[in-house]
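Q: Fold this one first, please.
A: Sequence and structure below.
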Amino acid sequence: MSEIRRVCVYCGSRPGLRPSYARAARLLGARLAAEGIGLVTGGGSVGLMGVVANAVLDAGGDAVGVIPRALADREVGHHGLTALHVTETMHERKAAMADLADAFVALPGGLGTLEEIAEALTWAGLGIHAKPCALLDVDGYYAPLVGWLDHGVDQGFVSAEARAGLMVASDPDALVDHLLATAATPPGTAPASAPEAC
């Protein structure tokens, strides 16, 4: 794994019902900026998408957004970002975000967030990229999904390698520490300090 210069964070364009979701987004954004790691985001200014972007910017970091023209109004495009790219389609948006990023993290979110992190993990399993994929499991939000993945392994539909390729951490600092350890680890060896849920 090469150096992690930018992390793509998938998350809700809504804030969710628990204050802990926004708190985790702020902590993640601040930590990324402190490490000199840029953010790639969906380009919206609302929900957790706006929270994590603003946290990065407030800490002096780099935040790049990619938003399709059709969603620029609905998700209220964030014009305070370091750069905001507008694409014609959702497919172009996802491809651009994947190209810009060296790792993928999902904060709590809805169907779009699920689809995006699932695609990143699928592409890793197919050998299309070798970039880390992770869930920030705030207050057990992703516990049902992790359980489903484990059930998929048990039933022979999900490979053990694909499941092992998904980091799961409940704390933003632990997640970033593991991403940095992954980047510093020679190929074929495991990082020394993987989060417990991995």
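Q: Good. Now the second chain.
A: Here it is, same layout.
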Amino acid sequence: MNSISLLFSASLIAGIINGVAGGGGLVAFPALLISGVPSINANATNAAALWFGTVASTVAYRREFTHQRKLLLLLSCVSVMGGISGSYLLLHTSPAKFSALVPYLMLIATLLFIFSQPLMKFLNKRSQDYQQIRLPLSLILPLQLIIATYGGYFGGGCGILMLALLNFTGLQNIHGINAYKSWLATCINAAAIVHFSFANKIIWFEALIMAVGAIIGAYSSAYLARKLHPLWIRSFIIGVSLSMTCYFFIQQLNKI
């Protein structure tokens, strides 16, 4: 019962965080590990639980999918391929090796989150003062495949990497970039979840509990966003994720 309360509370907070600032996975994933879920199962279950949030974001941005349909189709296909490749790599990583990688993956995701604020300011400035460098598709698609593979394998910070890449695709508007990012994240996670399901790596009871918490949190975030300063939310996420990263590093050292 305590683990259920922990997972529901963590996913509720993750849903609020995703609605206000992004980065909820940095709270939800450690909660699964702390509750005793094995690391690979925790990663798969976290992807399934928080997938509903990316679907909701995609629906909210549906009016933004009016330009560059060919680009969207190509990026979607590449994202599905990457989601399958990343989940394949995860399923063929031994639990011991993945557990050893967790502190480093958490550190990478945390650093990406910390630097996401300057990135968003940069993207907003470029969208207002449109001096865009556009990369060719022959470079965009392989880069998206790499990002999607990382997303299927772990996923923390994947959205931030996609925001950076999408800025060089010719999309002229930050809302359009966010719309594409939400849809591509949905594609990556959907492909990974199907793969994880066939491998029986998702613990569905915990995933559904967390999905309910995440949905309630996401719905509440519209109200809380008016009450809470985003800086407080970001500071909370950074504090929790850095603490969890240190905790997992200490655990690894104790095993040596």
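Q: Anything worth noting on the second one?
A: The CA atoms of residues 64 and 242 lie 35 Å apart.
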